[in-house]
Amino acid sequence: MRHVTLLTIDALRRDVLGCYGSEQGLTPFMDSIRDKSTVFTKAHSIGPYTQASFPGILTSSYYLEYRDQERREDALSWKRTLVSEVLHEQGITTAGFHSNPYLGEVFGWNRGWDRFDDSMEDEVDETVPYLNSSRINKKVDAWLSSQIGSTETKGTFLWVHYMDVHEPYVPAKEYIDGVDPTIDLSRDGMLWLFENKLLKRDASEKKDVELLRKLYWAHVREVDDAVREFFGILKGKNLLEDSVIILTSDHGDEFGEHGGLSHDGKMYSELVDVPLIIYEPGRDAARVTDKLVTTLDIPPTIVHLFGLDPVQAFEGSSLLPLENYPEKGVFGEAVDKHGSHEKGEEKGVHYYREGDLKMIYRERDDVWELYDLASDPREIRNIVHESPRAEAMMEKMRPRVSRNRS
Q1: Which domains are present in the chain?
Q2: Cα separation, 371 vs 268, whole angstroms
C-alpha cells in the first residue's frame, strides 16, 4: 500500500533551511532528510499569501482563475478540482489536518476528504488563533492508529499543515533561547510587537524588525521539532518505509527587505521562493535540481505517485520522473493587498520567471519591474528599462494579466 503525505508549513521561508544554505542551524531535522530526498532549489509559490497560494498546492490552478465567482461567494469554486477529490474517487483514503481559517470547511476546502479536520471548533487563544503543531500531530497520530489494519483502501493520502511559523510570533522560551538567549520578552511584549509593529507594517526601526525576525526563527526551530515528531509517528506505525513525503510552504514572510513586514501582495523572493523537498525512503543519495517549478506542480505529482492518469483540470506538471519535467517559465498572481484587508478597488499583482530573469507587474500602479536574479538575488535593481529581454518577458505575461482585468 502506498502512503503519500503533503506536509505544508505556513509562512516558512526557503532561506531559513540549512539544506538551502542557511548557517543559522534552525532546521537540523529537515536538513537531515536531504540525503533521501529530491531538493528543488528553484521552487516558487504561485502567490504570496495563503488565499493566493493554496489553489496551486491543492487544486493545481491559479488564484485568479475563477476570480469573479470566488470573490463574490468568498469560497472555493466548484470548477476547481481538489487533489483529494481525484484520489477519493479512486478509492484512496484521504485525510487533512490543519488550523488555518482560510482553508476551512466553510470555504469549501473539505471536498473529497474521508477525514477533514480544520480545527475550527477547537479552543485556541484569541491572540494566537491556531493550534500548534504538537496538537495537530496528536490528531494525526490518533487517526493513523484508527486506520492500521484497514484493507479497504488502495492507499492513503495525508495532508498536514502547521501554522507555528506564522505571526504573531509568540514562541516558547526554550526556542527563543536556542536562537538568542539574550532576548528577554514576556508574552505581552511579543504581542505588543505584533500589534504595534507587524500589524501596522512598521519596519522603520531596524532593532524591532530584527527582533521580529529572531522570534520567527524561534518558531522555525519549533516547527523543525514538529516535523521530527511527525516522522517519528510514521516510523512508530511502520509507515515511514512505504511513505513519500512532500514538504513545502505556501509562502514566506518579509522582514523589511522591500519596506514591509509579514506577507502582503508582493512578489519578491522572500515571499514566493519556497522550500520543496520530496522525501523517498528508498533513495540512496540526495538529488538536487535547479529546474524552475511551482507549487502548481504538487497535485499532478501526488496523482503520479499513486499511479493514476494525469488530471486534465490540473495546470501543473508532475515533478516525477524529474527527467520528464518540461522546461518552462513560471507564473504567480494575487490580489494586491496591504495588511489583512484589501484596500479600494481590487487590482492584481503578477510575476513571471524564466531562467534568472524575473518580471513583476503591479496593476494598481501600472508598473513593470525586471530583475536579474543571478547578479541581483535581493531584487534591488530594476532593469526593465535597460534589458533587451524586457519586452519579450512582458509579452509572455500580458495574456495572463489581461485575462483577469475587469
Answers
A1: 2-324 (3.40.720.10), 347-406 (3.30.1120.10)
A2: 10
* Residue 22, all three cell numbers: 542557511
pLDDT digits (tens, 9 = 90+) for 92-144: 999 999 999 999 999 999 999 999 999 999 998 877 889 999 999 999 999 99
Give the full edge-to-edge strand order of the sheet including 2-9.
Answer: 115-117, 93-97, 155-162, 2-9, 243-248, 276-279, 37-40, 287-289
Backbone angles phi, psi at 186, to 5 degrees: -80, 170
Q: Which residues, listed in sequence order, are joined to residue 301 by a DSSP beta bridge?
A: none
- How are beta strands 348-354 and 330-335 bridged, if at all? antiparallel
Residue from 156, 122, 154 nearest 138 by CA: 122
Query: What is the tens place of the pLDDT at every residue in 316-334?
Result: 999 999 999 999 999 999 9
Distance CA 258, CA 58 (A): 29
User: For residue 52, what is its C-alpha cell?
Assistant: 493566493
3-state secondary structure 95-146: EEECCCHHHCHHHCCCCCCCEEECCCCCCCECCECCCCHHHHHHHHHHHHHH
Model confidence, pTM: 0.96
Contact 130, 119 (CB under 8 A): yes
Q: CA 369 to CA 359: how far, in whole Å?
A: 6
